């Protein structure tokens, strides 16, 4: 089915300057609708895109033409024919946006009990549950002579007020006298306009906020807030004419767990205090709401925030600084450090408890993941020594689909008990990271690497044409030759290039070295090596001593494919950190 692309412009209003109409919208979205779209379908689609509840708001849709002659007023879409005309214009190259305005729905009770939206150009029948925004009072339909009385006043009603209608002796109010007796509690009676051209119904409309009275929204100022949760929203700026102390209101530096929580509380607050507001700007990181009255100056602004000028970990020095700013009291560094340690233990538990949970964790891994291999070794005093883990799905994929090239490396752990994490990774057919096995030991020494490769051998078995790539750590090379005597060992070209920079700081042969390492033909390799010798003979000799058959593709005995370095291990570590995988 053919569709039409329609740009949507909203959060604005129509203005007229020098006879020309303009729409000053602040946000724009886009929709795609079929040619057969009806008015109802278009309204529902627009309401969904701009997040408008049709049970509370009425949408007005207009668009304007670009003409070379006298400017025309915007055309409002009121029926299916207007929708068809607009879509035909859009399909023929017309690209003016559909301009959207909306206002709160005013519901009127008809004599037959139905409810209609008085201010809606697209009036429709609503159920009683849908018409909850404005309170209504329905007089008996058996009294057709009763006037329709409307209370409309621009003054602000500070609290919910109940209005009682009394008709003396069951009689209808005197139409000629144009009066109706009303008892009003805790408020000054607003002006009453009596009309005789409407059905017998009394509609009480909650008035809007004006400059004479403002809702009490707590302390009002600008501030910068800090939270430990990136998803939190903070009331950053709150502007009004009145400062109040209300426990149900909003305070400077107040924090909310999410944008939805803030919007929910704001809606409840508006209902409780009987005032209206509109969303001026809304995004993932910002929410700004203002009063519906242009003459009213109050505003609430909330922002998503992170730590400002601090590291990823909350350090004791930062705790001292924040404590002094928030409470005006200086605490010692040692006290701040101990407070941080207590908080970390509450949130994450202690390292000792985590190590005690390792046996249960390993048992659940093997139970829930078929063919998963886990090993734990302790010393003579029953203290942790080594740990190994290879998930069953990774092992099955490696044996069936992955190129037999394994990059191995180690990295320091920064927890309380330090240690080293061992990583074995591969690349799949799309050159994506493929984690194979993980281990933890005391450090990168002969014993720990030998233990890790032994457990890896028990997990993957004998693999034909297997290749290992690592940095030039002697323990890795020795362990590979011991545990996997039929495998081929290669050197990571990235680490070797870094060694060149460290040992020969005044010599730049990085580009020539990369070309030599990736060359397939011996003639090409010989050419690049001669170029390196021309630049520096010492660099050439250093590369030969490192073992040309270990880093040059043209001299390599095995099949390392295009995997020349172990950078995939670092990519995996970054991925783990990003997903908040921490090992204590």
From TrEMBL:
It comes from the Eukaryota. This is Uncharacterized protein.
